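Recap for those who missed Tuesday's class. We walked through two folding examples back to back. For each one, the amino acid string is listed first and its predicted structure tokens come directly after. Nothing is annotated here on purpose, so try labeling regions yourself before you check the end of the notes.
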Amino acid sequence: MKIVLAATGASGAIYLQRLLSRLDTAAHEVHLVFSTYARQVVHEELGELLVPPGVHQHGDKTMNVPFVSGSARFDAMVIVPCSMGTLGRIAAGTSDSTILRAADVFLKERRKLLLVPREMPWNLIHARNVVTLIEAGATILPASPSFYGGASTLNEIADTVVDRILDQLELPSPGMFRWKEPSE
């Protein structure tokens, strides 16, 4: 699978870190793009992002990457964390950065686009932008961790969101708590 990961300036760098740690970069081609403020948030929240070997890193000011063209075959794009500003610019069709152009391409080519906003509360503009993107074919996965699986550490709690991202990518998520009927 060919995957584009993008990080914006919203809080939630732990979700990106946990996703990177769980993607098999030997089996998948992974490209990573940071918005201008994403690196600052990563630094403030994590200190340093541990990027696995084999991940192709890109800045947000270039169009010299294959995934900003519809002729390049990529399978999925995940923006995690996704700021509401980025979400709104995607909904408006703005394509003046690498992340925004790539998201626009994934929508127009009907490819999987997953946005993981962490911000709250939402205002009416945020909600309308989310509806616009759902209608355009994006999947919105708010970073809302679950607690019914017994997660007790910060990483385990973050992984409940990452597990859902992996499910949407149709990638294995070993150890994920899945709801089931109680045994009798």
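Example two. Treat it independently of the first, because the proteins are unrelated.
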Amino acid sequence: MAQHNKLGQKGEDKAASYLLDKGYRLAARNFRYDHKEVDIIAWDKEELVVVEVRTRDSAYHEHPRNSLTPAKIKAIAYAAEAYILQNELDCNTRFDLVCWIPHKDDNRWEIEHIEDAFHPLP
């Protein structure tokens, strides 16, 4: 597995643990539909939360929240809609962003959780 894939997987694992600690109930991880993927799908009380996890090492100059492109938002929304239809859900849905940046000097990670971070593009 490439180094950036290992870092991304570690970030997703940390995000899942973080959300569980906040009281979310995980419904799916790495849900795929038609070559599109949602990192985490969870419940925050009665609201379905579609979570994109962005992880960057401290060598990047761009903050992970700035790496979310319109094409990626469209892909996330496409897969999320498929999940909702497959599971016949009728609920409010929110799109969150969890950003992780590991510190090179130690094992600390900086987190930023942005609730309702983006909306599907038409």
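Answers for example two:
The mean pLDDT is 88.
The first strand starts at residue 25 and ends at 33.
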